[in-house]
Amino acid sequence: NYIEALKKKKQTTAETEKLLEKSKANARMIKGTEEVCVIDSFIVDKDEFLRAYKISEESGSLHYFNDFFQTSGNNTTTVYETEIGNKIYYGDKGKDSTWDISSRNRTPDGWGSPFPLPEVINRNGNANYPFVLTDGVTIYYASDGDGSMGGYDIFVTRYNTGTESYMNPEN
After folding, report:
1. Burial classification of residue 78, based on how many CB atoms lie within 10 Å of its CB (0-12 exposed, 13-18 middle, 19 or more buried)
2. Which of 168, 148, 146 is nearest to 158 (CA)?
3. Which region among 11-15, 20-24, 25-29 has the lowest average model confidence (pLDDT)?
4. pLDDT tens digits, 42-85
């Protein structure tokens, strides 16, 4: 109705149509959500969450950024380290002061130089808190950028070894 009213007033409708399409996409995503049931729980301080949250050994490990890199400051991001300890993924401040996911490979001298993941992941907003499945190609991460319903949403993408690129992330 609002779009029709704008058309009658001979005003632009492009932005409103864009918002309408985003709302329709968000409505489809909400239909796909599932209820989560917590069977057992305990209370833990936010600063101690990763120490209390246990993942299987073959899934790698999660660390606080400051603990892993032995730095100080107010960096609240996490570092995901692969099971064999040869690669890490973590949130890092990008060129435009938003969080981007970067990766480093282990070298004989320690951790190599950071390299940000491609723009398909680090575009228009913050991308942070990566986790890689044991297959080594499926990455889950949080983002408030394109395709997000608002705030941090969970996205998944896969590395295509044939094209050496990441597939378009899905919310």
Report:
1. buried
2. 168
3. 25-29
4. 788 877 888 787 888 899 999 999 999 999 888 888 999 999 99
Other Cβ atoms less than 10 A from the Cβ of 79: the count is 22
Q: How confident is the model at residue 36 (pLDDT cuts 50, 70, 90)?
A: low
How many whole angstroms separate alpha carbon 129 and alpha carbon 29?
A: 21
Nearest to 138 by CA among 123, 156, 155: 156
How far is it, in rounded angstroms, from Cα 3 to Cα 15? 10
Sign of the four-CA dihedral 62, 63, 69, 75: positive
3-state secondary structure of 52: helix
Q: Provide the pLDDT for residue 151.
A: 85
Q: Are 89 and 109 in contact (CB under 8 A)?
A: no
Q: Which residues sit opposite 143 in a β-bridge?
A: 127, 153
How far is it, in rounded angstroms, from Cα 15 to Cα 21?
A: 10
